Amino acid sequence: MFDISSIASQFMVGLSRSMILFIVSAGLSFVLGVLRVPNIAHGSLYMIGAFSAFSISKWVGGGSTGFWIALVLAPLVTALVSLIAERALFCHLYDREHLMLLLFTFALMLILGDLVKMIWGAEYRSIMAPESLKGSINIFGASVPKYNLFLLLIGPIVAIGLWLFTNKTKIGKIARAAAVDRDMVDALGINVSWVFAIAFVIGCFLAGLGGALVAPTVSITLGMDHDIIIEAFLIVTIGGLGNMWGAMVGSLIFGVTQALGVLFWPQFAIVFPYLAVVAVLLWKPTGLLKSVW
Known about the structure:
single chain; 293 residues; mainly alpha; two-stranded antiparallel sheet; 11 helices
């Protein structure tokens, strides 16, 4: 038998996990929606964000100050890596078919994975959450870690910020127009190449932010990119390809079913989110919300 407090506590854990999944998936969905690039290397950039957060925190001296500085700088490091990759490689491939882009990003994932191993090694790393986010808060009888509540705050902020960027800023509107008709936007004298570069960097910045945010909750290690990219692609698929709010809904489904699965049937907890994905796709193969593809 399970009491209400344990179910509520696990539900909150699932919601906080969903926010990490959303931030990473929103970046992948944004790149898919604007550039039409299925970026398998997105998970590697998430891993770079986590390792960068560890190094920056250690360089500053750890503690609360190190965490907050790492949270700001690690996504920027990831964005810089993505900008170099985009200007050197991606910008020459946007007109190619999706299969070639898929193979290219897979190769890039392997290269970035080896670079991470060369720079940081194969040892497990970890960083500590700041003192202000340690401990738990009792909410309706459920003990909820403060860091989980922090993640529940960051997720909606990212969602609103990304929506405002794509719908209320000039560059966001141009990016949406370029996603629909690149040639027309180019004919108006707008440098579409740099519009795509900005869109790609923003998507990868979110991957790095997700990596920095997850760093205090998991072991930072090689291979952490593989799990997240599988989950992120499943989330954007069930949510609707390129649909940011679809990524939010898909993340909530994935994170909550996984957390409740740990509570009710821990031996098969990993199966529950995938069963949810299968159920959604059987019911609505195009995704829960409108796909931009």
